[in-house]
Design goal:
This protein is α/β, with parallel strands linked by helices. 38% of the residues lie in helices and 16% in strands. It has 6 helices and 6 strands; from the N terminus they run E-H-E-H-H-E-H-E-H-E-E-H. Strand 5 and strand 6 form a beta hairpin. The longest helix is centred in the middle third of the chain and has 11 residues.
Amino acid sequence: MDRLFLDANVLFSASYRADAGLCQLWKLKNVILCSSGYALEEARTNLAGEDQRARLANLSKVVRLFEAGDAPLPRGISLPEKDVPILLAAIEAQATHLLTGDIRHFGSYFGRRIGGIAIALPADYLAGR
């Protein structure tokens, strides 16, 4: 069973429109959706409409929340300070995948495993199912 850790931008995009394609993630069988309070708050802050925030609240009901541990980043990994809690929370969640649309900061890690976690675009993950 896959454990999918959802970055803030995935939560944001799934909540932005009622018919967002990323909502497919919530319909998958045999997956556990995970994220963090940090990621949820970032998504909520960036959503402008109350309807969008309500969708986020509804989607988040089935998402298991984990927070970043005190461990350092794995050796050889360099991320901006704002993204460190995302990766560390994914490690804490024992995620199999970290799904993110953040190509700028995570792009060089796509297709790689960090701490046992496959870093991927949500569309790539969905295409492989």
